[in-house]
Amino acid sequence: MKIKFIAIAFAISLALVPIYDNIAYGAESPRKLLSKIFLDIETNGANEDNLRQLKRFIGKHRRSDMVEEAVMKIASIYTEQKDFESAISAYRLLVDKFSESRDRSDSLYKLGYSLYRKGNILEAKSVLQSLATTENATVEAQIKAELLLTTIAAVTSSLNDRFQEITIGAVLPLSGNYAPYGERALKGILLAAGVYGEADGDSPVAVEVKVHDTALSEKSTAKNPMERDLWNFLKKEDVEGIIGPLRSKNALGAAKVAKRRRVPAIILSQKEEIAKSGKNIFRNFITPKMQAETLAEYATRALCKERFAILYPENPYGKKLASLFSDAVKKRGASVVAISAYEPKKKDFGEEFTELFGIEMEETMQGRRRVTEYTTTKEIDALFIPDNYATISQIAPYIAYYNIEDLQLLGSNGWNSTELIRSAGDYIQGAVFVDGFFPRSKRRVTHDFVTLFKEAYGYEPAIIEAEAFDATRVLLSGIDTSVEKSISIKDAIATMKPTDGVTGLISFDSDGETEKSLFLLKFERRRIVEIADPYNESIEKESILKLRPLEYEEDDLEELEYEEEDFTDMPMIGPVRPAFSL
Q: HSE-up of 539 (CA within 13 Å, CB side)?
């Protein structure tokens, strides 16, 4: 009944839009209406209100000659605001819907420019190359396109043979369903290549990035097509090492090929033990084991918790983390008092809480009211729930409902969302969780990386961009060290001391598996705050422009707060703005 009511209300609201527009706009001509909106923008600056008016104008007067000018204004506003994702949507609309426009050449250039600033390098090159070779394009637009193509070439490879020193390969999905992930990783790789060597005050080391699209071979029915194509890529391109691939299904095949070709590879996959494939194979990405170990260490050592309960979903992610966390706390002398599983997407967790905490119910009379009181019979210091924020928002209120006090909540990286603050903020205060990257960290290396990335691409990086950036700089540092010490690149990486990367301290064990210090985070006063690395006093002093081994010193745990409250979610590929269309 509720769904039906919402549907009827929505239909009524749609029906009222034309009436509202007629009231708002009256009988004025499209030119006069657009003039008023433009005047407001010139007088008061671009804001949400006049942008909304422009979009409403486009929807109402889609057949008017003035629509193109309105879309161009929207595109230019988004470009000025460095909201390149929205600008791309607007420029695509101009290019697709106004193919005969005299401003088409300029729109094509600005589309290419916006794609470049957003980091869609391959698509930007395609658009700009098309413009540069189009006969009916304006001379001005073609010159600008050629200049930007030169800039892009300078970012991705050296144009001067005198300074060309290093060539590396990026093995990523750059087409198909996983292209958004591959594009994000490529941005991190290109940024790392572009700034490498600047810390010494010399000219940047020229790094050429050769790209191999793993998606091209995934549709093939041939036997091991990805391995065959990567073999041909490495045979053709003289790269000193590769970054990638991302997908677990490609990781083992890539490792086999890199081992046979004796090319160092840093795999960006969660597939554990992949690094055991060979001495020149390394893996750099957050894993369930890292999360369990980091959280257990902090909970037992810093928070002094001894009795744990685990509530987990019956899926591979939940089972794996529950098992690893149980082992991790027991290894540290603590105990797991209770453990319970639930079906994914479950809504009612009363049964699980009753079992976990041994809850007993007693009904009493308070005046004329019958009151139910709940008491727990098990002593539990902390509850670990390895699930995503949507489920946690449903589970957390049960703690207050059953009057469970002095309970420390612990979570995995699925908790990292401000949606959880909005939906269950009163129930998760003080909860601690881990993640592989925190873009608003006060660690100097992370802060500098985020600043550089936003300047280059116009948006805040997430974990894929950060892991790719770190992996690239580790590879480049290994190449430098191998030359300096006359050792192999794989040995230079394998013997690397713990190094301060943007995703935390990085080193590799004897199997080539990354050893990371993850980000410890906490919900506090309806904000996400960072719990600083207890072993790193130089948290605000190091620069990302040179990877530096760190000196360890024992120190008390210190909490860092980020003053800004406007946090955004950090899903793997980020929120996608819907494109508007005619």
A: 20
Give the Cα separation of 472 and 458 in Å (integer): 21
Residues 315 and 415 in one domain: yes
DSSP string, 40-99: HHHHH-S-HHHHHHHHHHHHH-TTSTTHHHHHHHHHHHHHHTT-HHHHHHHHHHHHHH-T
Pair 97, 21 in one domain: yes
Looking at the 3D structure of the chain, how many domains does it have?
Answer: 3
What is the spatial distance between Cα 358 and Cα 378, in angstroms, rounded to a whole number?
A: 6
Looking at residue 307, what is its pLDDT? Answer: 97
Please indicate, yes or no, if residue 145 is contained in any of the structural domains: no
Measured CA to CA, the distance from residue 243 to residue 472 in angstroms comes to 7
Poorest-confidence range of 19-23, 27-31, 335-339, 345-349? 19-23
Amino acid letter for position 563 = E
pLDDT of 516: 83
Which segments of 303-393 are extended strands (E)?
A: 307-313, 335-342, 359-366, 369-376, 382-385
Instruction: Let me know whether 12 and 78 are in one domain.
Output: yes
Q: Is residue 515 part of a domain?
A: no
Q: Which residue reads 């001509």 in tokens?
A: 29
500 vs 204: which has the higher pLDDT: 500
Domain residues for 10? Answer: 2-137
Same domain for 162 and 44: no
Under a CB-based contact definition with an 8 Å cutoff, are residues 230 and 170 in contact? Answer: no
| pTM more than 0.90 | no
Q: Which residue has the higher pLDDT, 338 or 57?
A: 338
Token pair of 172 as six digits: 């990523």
Residue at token pair 């969660």: 270
Can you give the CATH number for the domain in which 385 is found?
3.40.50.2300
Spacing of C-alpha 325 from chain mean position: 25
**Same structural domain for residues 120 and 199?**
no
